Amino acid sequence: MKRVCVYAGSNLGAHPDYVHHAKELGRALVNNGLELVYGGSRVGLMGELANQVLELGGSVTGVMPTGLFRGEVVHTGLTQLIEVKDMHERKSTMSRLADAYIALPGGFGTFEELFEMICWAQIGIHQKPIGIFNIAGYYTPLLQMIDHSIAAGFVKEEHKQLVLSASDSESLIQLLQSYVTPVFGNKWNQLS
């Protein structure tokens, strides 16, 4: 594992632990010799994470669509900034560059990116580990929703293995590094 793609909020969030742990994740990435790939913004948790990695001498690649340069405020001090034409190309580029994924707290965009990677893993498009950084219980309702979807018969129990979760950065990175891609049977209950 060389590069980790981190999805994160473009806002700081209401709880001070979000910023603290975003910076902690940056330290953990550098301490483990891992490069950061992210959305390229200088604001929100995205910016806090990137700044921490850069301050500690780590490598940061940002990927941003041209149309978001004004809205999200592109980070101009990155190791590398890749300009793409739209959000689809952004997500595809970030995924191609990454060996693993982590979701920090964030909003709709973070949820969408996280679930796309989970879905892609479920249907075999990639075999990379996916981690949820559950800071201050932020993702607990989402993890409960996954359990609910299993109980309701829409997700197979075995597919829960695709989602790793921890409440501290070092534990999460260890989970990603020791991840072994599970082998699943058929995803569709009616075709089993």
TrEMBL record:
EC code(s) of this entry: 3.2.2.n1
The protein, known as: Cytokinin riboside 5'-monophosphate phosphoribohydrolase
Signal peptide segment: none
NCBIfam families in the record: Rossman fold protein, TIGR00730 family (TIGR00730)
Family: Belongs to the LOG family.
Gene Ontology cellular component list: cytosol
Enzyme class: hydrolase
Keywords (A to Z) from UniProt: Cytokinin biosynthesis, Hydrolase
Keyword Transmembrane: no
One family name in Pfam for this protein: Lysine_decarbox
GO molecular function terms listed in the Swiss-Prot or TrEMBL record: hydrolase activity, hydrolyzing N-glycosyl compounds
Domain of life per record: Bacteria
GO process annotations (BP): cytokinin biosynthetic process
InterPro entries assigned: LOG, LOG_fam
